[in-house]
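Discussion board: Methods & Data

I've been asked by a reviewer to show the raw model output for two of the constructs in my manuscript, not just the figures. I'm not sure how much to include, so I'm pasting the format here to get opinions. Each protein appears as its amino acid sequence followed by a line of discrete structure tokens. Is this the kind of thing reviewers expect to see in a supplement, or should I convert it first? Here is construct A:
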Amino acid sequence: MAEDHRRSDGQSIARAVAILRALAEHPGASFGQLAAMTGLPRSTVQRLVGVLAQERLVVKAFGQQGAWLGMELARLGARVRLDVRALMRPFLQALHARFPDNLDLTMREGARIVVIEQLASHDAIRVTSYVGKELPWHCTAAGKAHLSLLAPEQAMAVLSGGLQAFTPRTETDPARVLAGVAAAEGVFADRDEYGEGASAMAVALPPLGGAELALAIAMPTPRFLRLGAELAPALLTLRAEVEAAYGAGL
């Protein structure tokens, strides 16, 4: 009996959320339109909209058929403070248990790419990085992942003004950098481009709290060459797990 009650409560919540999402996409939708969009009976929609209206999560304008999201949602949303590092930490720790190398969680701040969280390598020979470090766009795996999130004109703009050659393998032609990013198919690599003897692989992540994020794993190049076939699937799996946990973005 208790199990049936919990199942019923969960079903009602899921239906109410479906209505809220439909109203977010179609403000002013009528009961009939909401029923069509959610697949719920019109009587169920009418009942749930009434409950949501009592909690000020939905409002109905006097004399009009449609419904709109209520200001209570805005008030609750304004109180949310996403800690991106805390949200990502379990995923980083799980990956670090498998690959105990440098993991850098990066975020775009305007025209800068900054490390906002890191799990350091356990090895004596390691790639050096730290929280707060700014990374170049054109020759780091994380930078390339962030370039993939920009419109072409934005990406070209951040690469304008001359690109520094950090090693003999650094590509300094913006057009070639962007061509490499376009061909990368979601997984971006730096092979001795930012530092000789150091390589990395990265993926872009779903946005959290409005932040554009990427995750890179960096290690000495000999180890990178040994593990290369394992790194891309692991990073793509992590990205899929983040999407499953938080959706396309929060």
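Construct B, same format:
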Amino acid sequence: MNAGPIEVVEADITRLGVDAIVNAANSSLLGGGGVDGAIHRAAGPRLLEACRPLGGCPTGRARITPGFDLPARWVVHAVGPVWHGGSAGEDDLLAGCYLSSLMLASLYDARSVAFPAISTGAFGFPVERAAGIAVRTVAGYLEQDAAIARVLLVCRGERALEAFRRAVATVRA
């Protein structure tokens, strides 16, 4: 497996000029704290209005809306799992977030996608474990679908940045 077009960056995801950004959403899709709140604020009130009729989203899956006031054309809302110690299927649910997000992005002709570190904030998923799952899932998907040319893994803070960099290095090795 090769990490190819995967880049790890420290940035404000709401300011990136990519085709799609992924929102670490809660299951209501109606906004929240952290990355979710920042994306809703930056996209403007039309994002909330676009999310209402979606009726939420199950954990491990994603939904897509326009980006509205964001530089990105699309927002992919992925609902990550809350960490319960690792025995409640959290790994598979997290992988499902990344996979579902990439499939939607590809379906909507997004060639560049930026992901936050899904579930590693308030949802408590261990960052090292999440990084490995994220990178393996993204790299595996990109081997099957060449339509997405660039994936940014957007981190906040040194701990997440280093964990995701190590995960990418492991996949490239």
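Answer (T.O., handling editor elsewhere):
This is acceptable in a supplement if you add a one-line summary per construct. For B, something like: The mean pLDDT is 95.
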